[in-house]
Write a structure and sequence with these properties.
Helix content: 40-55%
Structural class: alpha/beta
Bound molecules: serine
CATH class of the largest domain: Alpha Beta
Order of helices and strands: EHEHEHEHHEEHEEHEEHEEHEHEHH
Low-confidence stretches: none
Strand order of the largest sheet: 3-2-1-4-5-7-11
Length: about 325
């Protein structure tokens, strides 16, 4: 990877991954793009930033040629709960956008990173220690776009040699940009609520176990899989990766260790509950560990300590 383009760089992953890639590969070599026009803040101030709609194939090709791009991190997508309210748009961005990225990659010899998700699994998938290769019959539009994306990436590699790689991310927890409309968002919102009001209403019931990961580990996963020695990769794309699995009670109890008067109540959201119940409780990520050395650093305790510290400092400064 010499010159990297990120799509959807203003989102939860992109806003941090763009800056991390700039630190590692040089500011001028990492081009951020987003449908929104971003002219201020770190994304615009530390390197090239363009406005780009991934459903516009011609505009995408122009950016790839202009900046001599050889690797694309394709992050533009709608998250699961919002995708259920706009399934047509979710398909258009999730599948047609990826198709445009793979085509431009084929024509310009680019590598591609595609973030799949725990959403690529469904109710008939084994939910405990979900294997790397297993049944994938998701019932959400988000999941349908993710499975389609996994298959498209495999196809473009086999048929055209496009070096398309990726992981299946669990719920991602970060203290910078908020996620927008995901089923796992509660695990981010709970920290903000604990700091700001000491009260939180959880949209998923107790007992809903889901895989989760702290953002520094997610950034490492996205970069490590692209830097991995291709001769060691058996799967290449859609690697299960996880760092922890918990339900709302477990994260609540962990936060209460630091904020004893924090109170959580439940008001389940039927759309999110339906989606969460169809997803794994805990994935088996042994293929990622064996093939490219995946090894997360943060568990629930160390992530919680860092989240509360960083969000607490922002709150004290009046930034949130
Ligand atoms: N965090 C995502 C969502 O909840 C799952 O990949 O939509």
């Amino acid at each position: 990877m010499k010159n990297i383009l990120l799509t959807g760089c203003g989102g939860q992953i992109g806003s941090e991954l763009t800056l991390e890639l700039r630190r590692r590969y040089g500011n001028d070599h990492v081009v951020g793009s987003d449908k929104r026009v971003i002219t201020t803040g770190p994304l615009a101030e530390t390197g090239p930033m363009v406005s780009l709609d991934v459903t516009d194939a011609a505009a995408l090709a122009e950016v790839v040629k202009k900046y001599k791009i050889d690797a694309i991190y394709h992050l533009a997508a709608l998250l699961s709960a919002v995708a259920e309210t706009k399934p047509q748009l979710a398909w258009n961005i999730g599948v047609n956008g990826l198709y445009n990225v793979l085509e431009v990659a084929r024509e310009n010899n680019c590598a591609v990173f595609f973030p799949s998700s725990i959403g690529a699994f469904g109710p008939s998938t084994p939910h405990n220690n979900t294997p790397q290769d297993t049944i994938q019959r998701p019932t959400s539009m988000y999941g349908v776009t993710k499975v389609t994306g996994e298959l498209l990436c495999d196809y473009y590699f086999r048929r055209f040699g496009v070096d398309a790689r990726g992981v299946r991310f669990p719920g991602l927890i970060s203290n910078d940009t908020l996620p927008g409309g995901g089923t796992t968002d509660y695990a981010v919102e709970i920290y903000y609520a604990a700091i700001k009001t000491k009260k939180f209403t959880c949209p998923l019931p107790a007992g809903t176990f889901l895989d989760m990961m702290y953002m520094p580990d997610a950034l490492n996963a996205a970069i490590s899989v692209m830097e991995a020695d291709p001769t060691k990769l058996i799967h290449r794309n859609s690697f299960n990766v996880t760092a922890m699995s918990f339900d709302p009670e477990i994260i609540y109890r962990e936060i209460k260790k630091s904020i004893p008067d924090f109170v959580m109540t439940y008001d389940p959201d039927p759309v999110k509950v339906g989606i969460a119940n169809s997803w794994p409780d805990k994935m088996d990520d042994s293929c990622a560990r064996a093939e490219w050395g995946w090894n997360p650093k943060y568990d629930l305790a160390s992530m919680t300590a860092d989240m509360l510290k960083v969000i607490g400092e922002k709150h004290a400064k009046g930034l949130i």
